[in-house]
């Protein structure tokens, strides 16, 4: 997660926001990192929503989600595994929660040297702008030790704010306090909003072979997808690579050279005539494309191969294989197997395990009409 208070300063950090966020979406594996940004309301009001979205257009098409700074930031902060930010309150609250933080900017000028936030800026780990974000995040997770100061100075009485603040307010009003318990409204569950990527993806796959045990001999495929990286990602020199391009991409020329073309949407969208018809039209329109994939839900994907085989890929819950992923990653794993010489009948018989980082996803493959 990225948090920016919009504060300036003369520390030499500069405004890293427009450059850093597109780098994060391009250099972090798309299925292993969910990226969101919380920008201070002053940034929105100072520059205007149009300018902000123009600056972050590339990052947004790469999967970045902008969080409402008034309504959704607390839920995002609670869910975050790491926060890159500045000396603002969101980053400080993250440290208070014990979440690993990297300071992308943090000027000491303008801060009281004895203030808790100044000590935080002096001691928190720093983001190196031109170094690998992924390597820095992995090091951050490995070396993380919660900082004592932010938690101590944020609250000395966790869980008691409602009761204590109500007592204070009624005392100031010189009014008797109600006899019932002081309670806070729980934060509402945020809506389900999977990331939307409309840039071409560079996909790296490695077939591990047959899995024994809980997945019943399914073949395993490692999949790492990157949202339009500017260079080949480090460490991806094993296995094979292919291009997966969303049909909604602006770079329509990339559709003509895509190995996999995919889209997300409801199966009954009347504009497209259903997944089978859409896939057949895509393969007819793009002769280089080997596989067309229509993601119809959080765990399902309808695909059609160049041989004309219509298949349904469905995520399955098993006792030893957990996690969820973008089903378009399942389509890329299937493409890797077929391009490597396997037959559809083999994959149907054995099943498929798709690995995205540390997560494993058991996927059933079956034929459909179409």
The H/E string reads EHEHHHEHEHEHHHHEEEEHEEEHHEE
Q: Pick out the low-confidence regions.
A: 8-14
Strand count: 14
Name the assembly state.
single chain
Helix content: 25-40%
- What number is the mean pLDDT? 88
- Indicate the overall shape: elongated
* N- to C-terminal distance: 42 Å
Give the DSSP E fraction (strand runs of 2 or more residues): 15-25%
Strand order of the largest sheet: 6-7-13-14-12-11-10-9-8
Largest sheet: 9 strands, mixed, barrel
Rg estimate, integer Å: 24 Å
- Number of continuous helical runs: 13
The helix-and-strand class reads alpha/beta
Summarize the structure.
With 370 residues, this protein is α/β, with parallel strands linked by helices. The protein is 31% helix and 22% strand.
Describe this structure in words.
- The chain has 370 residues and is an alpha/beta fold.
- It has 13 helices and 14 strands.
- The chain has helices at 17-27, 41-47, 49-55, 57-61, 73-79, 89-96, 116-123, 133-143, 148-154, 161-172, 275-285, 327-339, 344-350; strands at residues 2-4, 36-39, 65-67, 83-85, 101-103, 201-210, 219-227, 240-246, 260-264, 291-297, 300-305, 310-316, 352-356, 359-367.
- Helix 2 packs across helix 3 and helix 6 crosses helix 9 (148-154).
């Amino acid at each position: 997660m990225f948090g920016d208070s919009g504060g300036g300063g003369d520390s030499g950090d500069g405004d890293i926001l427009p450059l850093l966020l597109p780098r994060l979406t391009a250099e972090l594996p798309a299925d292993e990192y969910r990226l969101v940004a919380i920008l201070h309301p002053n940034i929105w009001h100072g520059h205007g929503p149009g300018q902000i979205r123009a600056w972050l257009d590339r990052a947004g098409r790469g999967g970045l989600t902008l969080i409402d700074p008034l309504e959704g930031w607390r839920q995002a902060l609670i869910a975050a595994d790491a926060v890159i930010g500045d000396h603002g309150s969101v980053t400080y609250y993250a440290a208070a929660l014990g979440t690993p933080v990297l300071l992308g900017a943090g000027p000491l000028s303008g801060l009281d040297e004895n203030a808790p936030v100044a000590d935080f800026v002096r001691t928190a780990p720093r983001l190196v702008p031109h170094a690998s974000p992924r390597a820095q995040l992995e090091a951050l997770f490995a070396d993380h030790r919660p900082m004592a100061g932010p938690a101590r100075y944020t609250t000395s009485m966790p869980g008691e704010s409602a009761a204590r603040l109500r007592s204070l307010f009624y005392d100031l009003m010189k009014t008797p306090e109600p006899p019932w318990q002081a309670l806070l409204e729980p934060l509402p569950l945020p809506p389900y909003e999977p990331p939307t990527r409309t840039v071409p993806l560079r996909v790296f796959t490695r077939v591990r072979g047959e899995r024994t045990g809980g997945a019943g001999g399914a073949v395993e495929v490692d999949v790492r997808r990157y949202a339009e990286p500017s260079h080949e990602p480090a460490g991806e020199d094993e296995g094979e690579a292919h291009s997966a391009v969303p049909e909604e991409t602006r770079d329509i020329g990339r559709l003509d050279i895509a190995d996999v073309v995919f889209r997300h949407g409801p199966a009954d969208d009347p504009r497209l005539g259903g997944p089978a018809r859409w896939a057949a039209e895509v393969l007819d329109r793009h002769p280089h494309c080997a596989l067309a994939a229509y993601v119809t839900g959080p765990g399902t994907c309808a695909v059609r191969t160049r041989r004309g085989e219509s298949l349904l890929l469905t995520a399955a819950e098993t006792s030893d294989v957990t996690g969820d992923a973008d089903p378009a990653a399942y389509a890329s794993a299937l493409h890797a197997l077929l391009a490597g010489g396997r037959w559809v009948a083999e994959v149907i018989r054995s099943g498929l395990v798709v690995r995205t980082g540390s997560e494993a996803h058991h996927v059933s493959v079956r034929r459909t009409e179409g």
